[in-house]
TrEMBL record, chains A, B:
Superkingdom of the organism of origin: Eukaryota
Protein name (database record): Glutathione S-transferase rho
Domain (GST C-terminal): residue spans on this chain: 92-216
InterPro entries found in the cross-reference section: Glutathione-S-Trfase_C-like (IPR010987), Glutathione-S-Trfase_C_sf (IPR036282), Glutathione_S-Trfase (IPR040079), Glutathione_S-Trfase_N (IPR004045), GST_C (IPR004046), Thioredoxin-like_sf (IPR036249)
Length: 223, 223
């Protein structure tokens, strides 16, 4: 039980979700879980900014220790609870290096995704350009193709034979792609990866509650 | 000696520089060091893409292991050479968490910096807006102010009393700010941090060669 931990999170956010997966994998159930609504602006509330002055989710506390960066939280949990739950860092040196490579390439994938799906959220109306949206879509397509090819070369997990921090961190981004309509036909390896991992207990039990009984969106169907 | 390591790098690039600092701190001198020119497009050469298909620097090999993401390389070197050279992860749990927090917030600082300094490189002429440039500058100012306040609250290093991976990773970004004219008067704590660390052997010996005898630029002097 992890009664000395508090996590504030928003549904569907890959940075929040990866922390929830890591907590499950490390057998840290029973933490103080506070779901907040991005739509209602609750991530800007005083409860959050008292822990995370950036007004962003996740916001995480372990006792008196505050840590809000999702990559940092995952690394911290693995380090502090090495022998508890799933070991998330492969012993094999080459797999360990591949895990690190994929973890941090995951930032580029998520960034490419955000540029496409959140364009109108980030860019004021008078600064929008069709040429930029087209370039962003091409960039995301190329990036997703790169990840499809990674799983052609190895697998079944992102760093090879072992479920690792790379999966904890990048799976939510891949799930986000499919939630927004990514074609299983165009990206069969990513689809197989997604379909296998979505039944993993740590992932199933943390599946975004607002995704459960609602249809996905088609924004990426032609990618 | 690290004769089984190869690093391809470009001068002044914070992602390259942090890897060079990590190698020095871990006493991994003697690696195969290949300086390439961004200006000549050498990061897109076959030598690079054979190691890093993204055509980006750094590109790094240790024996047969390829790892190109700078955060990943730093974590890998610390993990593989734990007891060699400087210990870059504090034993103290709270300092360790603060190190991770600052390391990953460093991504936001670097991103804010790139949005300002590389605006014309990233954004085609017909898509540029004064309003975007103004917003980017305000965002960078707010971000740099945040880091100034971090050093008011603790220090002398980014994670507290111990030089750590947070410094290895974020110092090059802070040095970049001052290279581009950041005011020492406006940001005295960052200036003190910069001035102390720039004489550290690992940093002095890896200082960007193209910065040594050339003046900085004033782009950020009014920030």
């Amino acid at each position: 039980m992890a009664k000395d931990m508090t996590l504030m999170w928003g549904a569907g956010s890959p940075p929040c979700w990866r922390v929830m997966i890591a907590l499950e994998e490390k057998n840290l159930q029973g933490y103080n879980s506070k779901q907040l609504s991005f739509e209602k602006g609750e991530h800007k509330s005083k409860d959050v900014t008292a822990i995370n002055p950036r007004g962003q989710l996740p916001a995480f506390k372990h006792g008196n220790i505050v840590l809000n960066e999702s990559y940092g939280i995952c690394l911290y949990l693995e380090d502090q609870f090495k022998s508890q739950g799933t070991k998330l860092t492969p012993d094999n040196k080459a797999e360990n290096a591949l895990m690190l490579q994929r973890m941090f390439e995951g930032l580029t994938l998520f960034d490419a995704l955000k540029q496409v799906l959140f364009y109108t959220r980030f860019v004021p109306e008078n600064e929008r350009h069709d040429s930029a949206q087209k370039r962003n879509a091409e960039n995301l397509k190329s990036e997703v193709g790169r990840w499809e090819s990674y799983l052609q070369g190895s697998g079944p997990y992102l760093a090879g034979k072992t479920f690792s921090l790379a999966d904890v961190i990048v799976f939510p981004v891949i799930a986000f792609l499919f939630r927004f309509g990514l074609s299983e036909e165009h990206y069969p390896k990513l689809a197989a990866y997604h379909n296998t991992l979505k039944d993993r207990p740590s992932i199933k039990s943390t599946w975004p509650p607002n995704w459960v009984d609602t249809p996905g969106q088609p924004a990426l169907k032609d990618l």
